[in-house]
Amino acid sequence: MFGSVNKRIHETLAERKKRRARLVTKDGRCNIEYGNIKYSEHFAFLADFWTTFVEIRWRFVLFFFIASFTLSWFIFGLLWYWICRSNGDLTWQSPPLGHTPCVENVEGLTTAFLYSLETQTTIGYGGRALTPLCPGAVALLIIQSLLGAIINCFMCGVILSKISSPKKRAKTISFSEMAVISPKNGSLCLSIRVANLRKTLMIGSQLYGKLLRTTNTPDGETIIMDQMNIDFTVDAGKDNLFFVCPLTLYHIIDKSSPFFEMAVDTLHKQEFELVVFLDGTAESTSSSCQVRTSFIPSEIMWGYNFLPIISRSKEGKYRVDFSNFSKVVHVATAHCAYCFHNIKGHHHHSREGHDNPGFEVININDPPNVTKL
Questions:
Q1: With 70 as the cut, is the pLDDT of residue 353 above it?
Q2: Is 241 helix (H, G, I), strand (E, B) or coil?
Q3: 309-343 pLDDT, tens per residue?
Q4: Which of 10, 18, 112, 197 is a good FRET partner for 256, with 20 to 30 A between their CA atoms?
Q5: How far apart are CA 167 and CA 288, in angstroms?
Q6: Dihedral, CA of residue 366, residue 368, residue 369 and residue 373, to nearest 10
Q7: All structural domains of the chain
Q8: What positions does the domain Potassium channel inwardly rectifying transmembrane occupy (predicted)?
């Protein structure tokens, strides 16, 4: 019992260490901290207050929403109370018979607060009403009405912007948990799967990657988080993707690829992070969004290939089986890119591969050597 508990604790700590070690999390968030920022630079966030309000968490948005309205009602309630007190309208001031108040039925702080709320929200129950006796009260009524409209517009705009944020559309774009390296069309390729969970398309989708690692220059300079471009393509090409069904991205491992010097026994000993980007425009909202994910060496499987997930039903409809989205099967693969390109036989595909020619009807059954991620 204690052994299993210790094992779970070690696995949890290892997972947390892995999350801290990567720059981009699996869901696309950047794991980076900023320190030693000049105090004056913090005012830049206030100058760009709209972006600041849109990007803060929902709990703070709801807090500012409630606080802005409640505080404005209370402040204007105090002003209404002051005007009524100056005119001698309050109950404790014992106004004489025939006295005309600035605001009818405002006799204390509570009724002044209620009148402020009714004015700013344009409720107008009719129990409390402004009289034309006090010009200052008329001016205050105009100011509160204008300020209330500004607060309404601003807070509604912030909430609408957060709800319609392109980041929410990115939640429906899913990448495979693991990347695989296997032969593909006579080349050794690193493959990643991506799927659009909505039926609406992503227009003008572009796919690319960045390899992040620490390098040393000939001058002895150490560059942390050095970036190298990684080109990805699909069977239909690189640009103008028809993203209606899950796609498999391929990076050809040739002599120009940073993976060329790696092998099956040295891959997991490397220190790098492969960040994959998908840029596109949502068809329904015309808003641009970017989806990101990353892969570290332990999340790249050498000698495996993804199972097919697209089939065609007897009624002629295409079907995507997402239960196999992240499942892989072992295939015969050279243990290094150099062997694949220079030793005969290593470029041949395994006979254990699963093909789906012509999108025919298939029944996908997990063979014994299928690995589920």
A1: no
A2: coil
A3: 888 888 888 888 888 888 899 998 888 887 887 76
A4: 18
A5: 9
A6: 50
A7: 58-163 (1.10.287.70), 167-372 (2.60.40.1400)
A8: 24-166
